[in-house]
From TrEMBL:
<dbReference type="Pfam" id="PF07648">
    <property type="entry name" value="Kazal_2"/>
</dbReference>
<keyword id="KW-1015">Disulfide bond</keyword>
<dbReference type="InterPro" id="IPR036058">
    <property type="entry name" value="Kazal_dom_sf"/>
</dbReference>
<keyword id="KW-1133">Transmembrane helix</keyword>
<dbReference type="InterPro" id="IPR004156">
    <property type="entry name" value="OATP"/>
</dbReference>
<feature type="transmembrane region" description="Helical">
    <location>
        <begin position="271"/>
        <end position="294"/>
    </location>
</feature>
<feature type="domain" description="Kazal-like">
    <location>
        <begin position="146"/>
        <end position="205"/>
    </location>
</feature>
<feature type="transmembrane region" description="Helical">
    <location>
        <begin position="78"/>
        <end position="98"/>
    </location>
</feature>
<feature type="transmembrane region" description="Helical">
    <location>
        <begin position="314"/>
        <end position="334"/>
    </location>
</feature>
<keyword id="KW-0406">Ion transport</keyword>
<keyword id="KW-1003">Cell membrane</keyword>
<keyword id="KW-0472">Membrane</keyword>
<keyword id="KW-0813">Transport</keyword>
<keyword id="KW-0812">Transmembrane</keyword>
<feature type="transmembrane region" description="Helical">
    <location>
        <begin position="223"/>
        <end position="250"/>
    </location>
</feature>
<comment type="similarity">
    <text>Belongs to the organo anion transporter (TC 2.A.60) family.</text>
</comment>
<protein>
    <recommendedName>
        <fullName>Solute carrier organic anion transporter family member</fullName>
    </recommendedName>
</protein>
Amino acid sequence: RTLSETDSNDDLKNKDISLLDFLKLFPRMFVRLLLSPFLLLLILAQCCFSAVTAGLATFLGKFLERQYGASVVRVSQLVGAVNLPAVAVGMLIGGIIMKRMGLSLKSIPRFSVIMLTISTLLCVPLFFMGCDTQRVSKVNDQLGQYRPLSQCNISCSCPENAFHPVCGSDGVEYISPCHAGCTNFTKDPNNTFRVQLYTNCRCISGGQSHARPDPCESNCPHFLLPVILMISLASLIACLTHNPLYMMVLRCVSYEEKSFAIGIQFLLMRLLAWLPAPALFGLVFDMSCIWWRTVCGKQFSCGYYDNNLMRHRYFGLQVGYKIIGITLLIILGWKAKLTQEYNLEKKSEIQV
C-alpha cells in the first residue's frame, strides 16, 4: 500500500468525519478504486454477463414469438414458469455452494470459468434449433414475384401501409388480403365482426384460391419448449456464479472501501451493461429485418425478419459476451495469486 492509500483509509476510519471531508476524499477514492486492475477486470467481467441478462430480459419474449410463432400469452407463461425460477434457483444454489465450499479469492474465478464455459456450450445447440423464414409474397418468395399472376393485384391499388397478414391456400403468406388479390370474404357465423375466410383471391394459384385472416403457422413450433428449457438450464448454471463473483468484489478491497466498491460496481454495470446492451440487441434484430412497415411514408417497424439470421446473431452476441467475460475471469484467476484477500467481517490489519 502507498502512503496516500493508508492516509485515505485512516481518514475513513475516523467516526467523526464530516460530510465535507468525505466529499473531499471522494474523487481520490473513486479514481483509486477505478484504476485498481483487479477490481476493474472483475467488474468488466460482471458487465459482460449482465449484458447477456439484459438481452434475455428485453428480447427473449420477442425472439420466441418471431422465431416459433408463439403467442404473447404462451411466451409469458413459459418465461415466468421456467426461465425466471431457473435463474432464482441458480442464485440460491450458488450462495449455498459459496457457503459450504468456502470458495476463496483464488478459487472463485476457477469455479466461475468452469460453470460459465458449460453454460456457453449449452447455447451451441440453440443456433440450430429454429425455423426457416416463412414464405411471404413479394418479400422473400421469389417464385411468387415471377408468376404469371404477379400482376394480379395492380388494379387493387393496395396502400403502402397495409399490413394485415393472411395465409393463402398455396402456403404462401401475403401482406394483406389486398396483396393476395382477394375480392370477397365470408364472415364468422359466431362473430359477425370477424372475417372467417377471404375468397376469390386472384394472386393465389390453385383450384380453391382463398386465404385465412392470420399469418401462416410456424413450421417448427415443437422447438419452443426444448429451446426455453435449454435457455433456462444455461441460465441456471450461469447464475451459480452470481453470488461468488459478488463476494469476490467484497474480498478484494479493504473493510473501509467495501460499500464504496459496491457502488462503483453497480454504477459501471448500469453504464456499461444495462444501458448499451438492450440497444445493441435491438440493433441485431433490426439488422435481421427483411421487410419494414411504413406509416406516412416513413419506416415504422419490422414486419418480417430473416429467422435464421436473427437466431444466429441473437445467440451469437450472447456467446460473444460470455467468451469475453470468461477470458477476463481467466486473467483474474492469474492475478488473484498476487492479490491480498480481505476478511468480510473484520477490519484490515492496518487499523490502529
